[in-house]
Amino acid sequence: MVVKNICCIGAGYVGGPTMAVIAYKCPGIKVTVVDVNEARVKSWNDKDVSNIPIYEPGLEDIIAEVRGRNLFFSTDVEKAIDEAEMIFISVNTPTKTYGLGKGKAADLKYIELCARQIASVAKTDKIVVEKSTLPVRTAEAIKSILDNTGNGVKFQILSNPEFLAEGTAVQDLLNPDRVLIGGGNDEGGTIAINALADVYASWVDRHKILTTNVWSSELSKLTANAFLAQRVSSINAMSELCEKTGADVNEVAMAIGMDSRIGSKFLKASVGFGGSCFQKDILNLVYIAKSYGLNEVADYWEQVVIMNDHQKRRFASNIIKTLYNTVSGKKIVFLGWAFKKDTNDTRESAAIYVADDLLNEQANIAVYDPKVSEPKILNDLDYLGTRSETENRKGVEVYSDPYEACKDAYAIAVLTEWDEFKSYDWGKIYKNMRKPAFVFDGRNILDGEMLKSIGFVFQSIGK
Ligand code: NAD
Ligand code: UDX
Could you count the other beta carbons within 10 Å of the beta carbon of residue 74? Predict the structure, then answer.
């Protein structure tokens, strides 16, 4: 079977870049990305390509080339479903905030809505691809909805989890370590798997396209994120011990990373991992393990999140302690708000939680981030619900110039590892700050010796 029309439901951080790359590499396939969020679709269609809603290095160039050629963004979900032979579901699957499994289980209401809509619209056989990260055995629920509410047409469900990381999404999509496709081993399943594998084979080596059963594929995605996050929490746990013992966490990371069995990636100590995936997916794993009565398995993985919360809280309390146990009325600058560099995504960013702790101590927070807008920053704090919108606006000021942000500040905290922070004129910044001037490097990116020679009191993670 040759796929000519693809529909993707969900024009977010995964749907947008993934479909852009498929369209780029498969000019013979018409790809339509649909979303219920009109404002988001409007931004994707903005004539000025720099206004697309997601910042990812390299994405604008690809969008400029393929948008209107064989990539389309639309709010007409039904039309796109009707026309496609293959439908990717790429909607959000956040942690449930209500009812059974609140705070841990994945909220599958958007997935169910998609399944119901596909079933009601489809007049021809469709391959439905789970691109969203889903609890193991979700395909069973999707199949049941499709088969029981559909118009008698045949559906094949595939699991094709996405492994891209934000900030490097385009490169990850162009050169994936692997593409994982889970599907049934009957004739229909095999045809569907091959159809999707052929799409990827336009640019990915066949030996990197791995096919498994659906449940292995679904569970592999949660497992991959749990393992990656576990490495960050492990090195962060060691960072606290380093601070007590005189060891240097960067040196420890280098020493263990050279062991080829351990490897050097994902060993950067930090203020804590953020992003929309790690915490959500581990909590989901914890919930699934508990639901099977596997309490030790659940506790083991939950500790990764507990350690991460501790690391964020520890960073904030260290700032308070160092600033003579009071930050009330003191201007503290946040360099960076995004959860990592090269993205405008702030979901679960450590910055939000550190700011929240400092605002509780009545600090004045000044934020500068090269890609995150003021409304987003304030909205992140409002969403936490700790204090009123008025109080958040009173406590937080957002700057578009880092030098202005640092004027009259008592301390600077580096929350995101944006490259530009390293090349600032730190002498100029120092001159305009209150003394003693403190820098708390939550990402271990600045040259501490240089800053100390200027006069700063410098602290970083794990030293
Ligand atoms: P997102 O919130 O950026 O985008 C999801 C989009 O789906 C939103 O724009 C929303 O309006 C839309 N949507 C929701 N329900 C809809 C419906 N019924 N019809 C049409 N549109 C609908 O989310 P994301 O970051 O792209 O993540 C999507 C999925 O991919 C999640 O399951 C996530 O866990 C997974 N994932 C994310 C990443 C990542 O780095 N962000 C990486 C791998 C996997
Ligand atoms: C992650 C997975 O890497 C990706 O494969 C999956 O598809 C989605 O979830 P993402 O959350 O976009 O990707 O970014 P990632 O690079 O994994 O970083 C997550 C968080 O961990 C960031 O806050 C980052 O700063 C932090 N991190 C990462 C560290 O603190 N130290 C490290 O060594 C690596």
Answer: 16
- Indicate the average pLDDT of the chain: 97
Mean local confidence (pLDDT), 145-166: 96
The string over 325-341, giving b where at least 16 C-beta atoms fall within 10 Å of a residue's C-beta and e elsewhere, is eebeebbbbbbbbbbbb
**Which of 223-261 are b and which e, b meaning 16 or more Cβ less than 10 Å from the residue's Cβ?**
ebbbebbbbbbbbbbbbbebbeeebbbbebbeebeeeee
Alpha-carbon gap, residue 207 to 204, rounded angstroms: 8
Q: What percent of the chain has pLDDT over 70?
A: 100
Could you tell me the two tokens for 374? 């003021």
Q: Distance (Å, rounded) from C-alpha 144 to C-alpha 278?
A: 29
Q: Is 341 in contact with 266 (CB distance < 8 Å)?
A: no
Q: Contact at 8 Å (CB) between 168 and 225?
A: no
Confidence band for 448, pLDDT divided at 50, 70 and 90: very high
Q: Which of 357, 349, 350, 346 is nearest to 318 (CA)?
A: 357
Q: 33 and 60 in contact (C-beta within 8 Å)?
A: no
The whole-number pLDDT of residue 298 equals 98
Which ligand is closest to the CA of 442, given by its number?
Answer: 2
Who lines ligand 1 at CB under 6 A? 9-15, 34-37, 40, 77, 90-93, 110, 113-114, 132-133, 162, 164, 166, 276-277
Its pTM stands at 0.97
Confidence of residue 314 (pLDDT cuts 50, 70, 90): very high
What is the pLDDT, as a whole number, of residue 411?
98
DSSP 404-415: HHHTT-SEEEE-
* Alpha-helical segments (H) within 246-329: 249-257, 278-291, 295-322
